[in-house]
Structure formats: C-alpha cells, structure tokens
Amino acid sequence: MDLSEQTFGEWVRVRKDGHVAELVMDRRGAMNAVSTAFAGALADACGALARDGEVRATVLTSTHERAFCVGADLKERNSFSDAELAAQRPHARAAYTGVLELPMPTIAAVHGYALGGGYELALACDLIVADPTAVLGLPEVSVGVVPGGGGTQLLPRRVGAARAAELIFTARRVAAEEARALGMVDLLAEAGEDRAEALALAARVAANSPVGLRAAKRALRTGWGMDLRAGLEVEEAAWRTVAFSGDRAEGVAAFNEKRKPDWPGV
What we know:
Elements lengths: L4 E4 L3 E6 L2 E6 L10 H16 L5 E6 L4 E3 L4 H5 L3 H19 L5 E5 L2 E3 L1 H7 L3 E4 L4 E3 L13 H9 L1 H10 L3 E2 H7 L4 E2 L5 H13 L3 H13 L5 H16 L2 H12 L9
Parallel strand pairs: 3-4, 4-6, 5-7, 6-8, 7-9, 8-11
Antiparallel strand pairs: 1-2, 2-3, 9-10
Helix pairs in contact: 1-3, 5-6, 9-10
Pfam family, one: ECH_1
Organism: Streptomyces qinglanensis
GO molecular function, one term: enoyl-CoA hydratase activity
C-alpha cells in the first residue's frame, strides 16, 4: 500500500518520505483532543503503518502551533453516560496501544501542550524530542480520573517510581527544561524545530538495518520489567532473528567493502 500521503478519518494523516513515516495529528480546532473518532483514526493509521514493511522509523507530529495534544476530549465526554464512556474505552485504548506497539522505532515531536493523554501518546513512542514551548504532564487526578493511556506504567520507566508518583499525584505541569532534566523528554530542539529535529533523527535511525531495528525494539520493549536472566533470553532471541538474516550478511559485506549497505530487509 502506498502511504506517501494517506488520510485516516478527518484528522489524521500519514506521510512517507523514503523509509521514514510521519504520523500527523491535525485536529486543529480542538488542539488534537482525543475524541472517539480521533482515537479511531489514530488506531487505523497505526494499523496501516504496522503492516508497512518499508517504514523503518515513524515520527508523531502535530500541526497545531500551540499544542502537541491536550489529551482526552472532555467536552465530548461531558455529555457521556456511564454506558457511553465504557463503550468509548476500547477505542481510546486502541489508539494508545497502536502507537505503543508500532514495530519500528518511533519518535514524538512535541511543542506546546502535551497533557494527559497527549503526553501519554508521546510516552508511547521510543524517543521524545521537545522544543522550549513544550508543557508536559499527567493531570488526570485533578479532574477525578487516572492516566489511562499507559501513563502510570510508562512514566515510571522513564523517570523512576517516586518521581512519577510525585508528578501524577500533584497533577503538575512541567516546562521543557525541567522535563529534560527529569527524563520526561530525551532531546531539546531549538524553538519551532521539534519536528525537523525528530525527522532528522528518524532519518539517522532509518539508515540502519530494518530487521535489526525491529528486533532491537522488540528486545527493549519485551525486556521491560524482567529480571536480567529473562531479559538476556529475550536478547538472545532477538540476536537469532538477525544473525541469519540477509540484513546481517549485507551489513558485514558492506563494512568489509567500505560502502553503505543496501538492506534487503529480510
């Protein structure tokens, strides 16, 4: 399937440039608030990306000047009955799980507000690039809920259990500089350059073996929470996946012939 420019629903697009895909959130009128329809579109886009063997890295971006994503669409939810809220839950989970389970490395390009479910979308990515305007946090307890897009599990893996508890329990918002110091984001770009920096990073990632990249990501993600012995078995399985692949043969040959590899991707 050609994903060079494809639209999912009303507010989500996927652009492809070579082996790099850009997953674009474009619900500008609501700062990318995650409504039922928006969640469904994100899930559908992630499903298409996961099936695209040509993509080696994906960047999650926003077209809104002042926001990456402000989280759940509370205006929509304000009208929900309990039954309607329960019915929406699988759609929301599918969106966050869709980003989290993308098989290739993923990078979030964050500027402006990334709050609640918006920050959880960034947390679902492997790396987060932010610019100085970024404001991040998980303020769910301030409106009577808890982070439900993976935040209670993903944030401690970034910043540690005690720091994550402080951030979640106080519901406070964190500016970009502090977020970088705490490990809530990985790289700080110049103002307005988060997307360009993330795409450049994705291009560097995508220059590497697609078989190796996906196996390395599986090993990293699967090993979360395991003891060392179990984690090393996960790594062994990843090694066996790539050791007898065409990518490994091409990588070794290219190294010895002092040329760039032409990855077969198998």
